[in-house]
Specification:
This protein has a domain of 150 residues: P-loop containing nucleotide triphosphate hydrolases (Rossmann fold), CATH 3.40.50.300. The chain is 47% helix and 14% strand. It contains nine helices and seven strands; from the N terminus they run βαβαααβαβαββααβα. It has a five-stranded parallel β-sheet with strand order 2-3-1-4-7, with helices on both faces. Strands 5-6 form a two-stranded antiparallel sheet. A hairpin with a 6-residue loop joins β5 and β6. Its EC number is 2.7.4.3. It comes from Caldimonas mangrovi.
């Protein structure tokens, strides 16, 4: 299974990716997690990416496409993979097409902007694993600690209200066009086109997981 999870910042891509990847036994490829790992490691890419991410803007297509091509060439991707937060521009989607990367399905998680700011402000993350919690909607067993390792959870630097608004605007202008890109491609009946499915991202985490797994079946 090779799939794309498409959706606005805070739609729940990372949260649902964990369940989907477990069910299908495939790796989660989150370009955001990869960039945050580079920031934490203090690599040249990380230093450059941090400025862009903190401003709520997008890292350059060339860098991201290079990272993803390298990642999907790894042996654990032969069974498939889940893209979380990639592609998020038309050039990134075109690069996958040009490279002949065949995708089975694009799953869009739809959440209205009003719900997003509250989700982001309560988000807490375990950086090493990418596991994501919410203080109210998806709390860890012990406040401030990761369920699996017991390590500290942090708040992401780009989850400040102003940055969230900027990220939503960037989503509308740069990423939302991919909804038409993939749904229209699917409608042509081209055998290379991934199927297109859309689910509502409103409701409990468990309800959305059930919807997602049904849509992928
Ligand atoms: P990235 O890490 O991809 O962030 P994003 O797309 O903005 O998405 P988020 O991670 O914020 O949200 P999510 O949908 O994963 O939601 P989550 O499950 O955490 O990218 C970060 C930055 O990196 C970008 O701004 C850009 O600079 C750069 N970047 C990354 N990829 C790039 C690319 N391809 N090209 C260029 N630049 C790139 O859930 C959010 C919160 O809601 C959590 O607290 C969660 O617990 C809670 N929640 C989840 N589900 C529910 C529910 N059903 N009800 C209530 N709360 C819920
Ligand atoms: Zn995420």
């Amino acid at each position: 299974m090779r799939l794309i999870l498409l959706g606005a910042p805070g739609a729940g891509k990372g949260t649902q990716a964990a369940y989907i990847c477990q069910k299908y036994g495939i790796p989660q490829i989150s370009t955001g997690d990869m960039l945050r790992a580079a920031v934490k490691a203090g690599t040249p890419l990380g230093l450059e990416a941090k400025k862009v991410m903190d401003a709520g803007a997008l890292v350059s297509d060339d860098i991201i496409i290079g990272l993803v091509k390298e990642r999907i060439a790894q042996p654990d991707c032969t069974k498939g993979f889940l893209f979380d937060g990639f592609p998020r521009t038309i050039p990134q989607a075109d690069a996958m097409k040009a490279a002949g990367v065949k995708l089975d399905i694009v799953l869009e998680i739809d959440v209205p902007d009003e719900a997003i700011v509250e989700r982001m402000s309560g988000r807490r993350v375990h950086v090493a694993s990418g596991r994501t919690y919410h203080v109210k909607y998806n709390p860890p067993k012990v406040a401030g600690k990761d369920d699996v390792t017991g390590e500290d959870l942090i708040q992401r630097d780009d989850d400040k209200e102003d940055t969230v608004k900027k990220r939503l605007a960037v989503y509308q202008s740069q990423t939302r066009p991919l909804v038409d890109y993939y749904s229209q491609w699917a409608a042509t009946g081209d055998a290379n086109a991934p199927k297109y499915r859309k689910i509502s991202g409103l409701g409990s985490v468990e309800e959305i997981t059930a919807r997602a797994l049904q849509a992928l079946d």
